[in-house]
Amino acid sequence: MSNAGRTGIGLIGSGTISSQYLRNLTAxxxxxxxxxxxxxxxxAAEQAAAFGVRESGPPEAALAxxxxxxxxxxTIPAVHAEVSxxxxxxxxxxxxxxxxxxxxxxxQSLLHRADTLGLRIGGAPDTILGAGLQTARRIIERxxxxxxxxxxxxxxxxxPADDHRNLEVLLSHGAGPLxxxxxxxxxxxxxxxxxxxxxxxxxxxxxPTRVIQVGPKAGQEITVQVPTHVSVMTEFETGQLAxxxxxxxxxxxxxxxxxxxxxxxxxxxxDPNEFDGHLAICHRGDSExxxxxxxxxxxxxxxxxxxxxxxxxxxxxxxxxxxxxxxxLDTMVSITESIERGMPVxxxxxxxxxxxxxxxxxxxTRTFSDN
Length: 371
Prior knowledge:
This protein is an alpha/beta fold. 31% of the residues lie in helices and 24% in strands.
């Protein structure tokens, strides 16, 4: 990565989520998107044209691009580790969508290879860098609710309908509500309590078989491979507890619910799948909640890659790190094992809580010089 000019970005994977990334990354003045790549080169070309990116092509073109410093990995979860490994071997830093990998060994291999090569790897969610969760951190860390004791997180929705075009993928290994939405809620909890140390979970599948309604496999019956409802009791290394429910079995939507209970009050935190949102606090003895407006950077998806770019230039650790993404992966694997074994499972990994963003951190300010 050069010490002058904007940091070069290459994006691999031009599915739906790529629009959010491209909208933001093409607006952040410290980075420049040079190429959009995909196995489906026509789709890559379409996305590149839509966001004013000059080049498009297959993934190999992004990996070999001489002006690309960071690869944004937006491929399907089953190949996250493979694509990230290829990017590292190409001498590029990596930002990957969640999860980092689908198993511990692949995740550990990525961290080891990045460290060996002197490269950065970071992973979603970067919502922890948004105004909502950063404001929550400031409130908690200055003691407004006293000492945090417990957490409650709740995500309940109807789940994918039978006519969802990705139904089979969403009900396969590496998906389901735990792997699809768990990273947002579990990562948010680490920002309050630090690392998980043990989990005890239960899960169930409400409808063991489903019939695909659309696409080339329409009419085919599939077996649901992952729990569609997961309930977890987690313990943190500091002794606090949290209860988390992740469900696709609810007929109505209850999302983004996180409460942190402290010795002197309770804080309601915004949806961890968003970068902003409303907070509210209820102090000991109060009968009403007091609303709080979030402050700081909003930005959107791509903040994590921007933080890598700025952190490399500054020679400091980036915040949504590979270490943190691996710890959340390890925790999700442990939750899966706890469901399968019917017993508590110890989480072996630890991740250092990242430094908060300065309140004035602005993704839309140019901080890199052309000279």
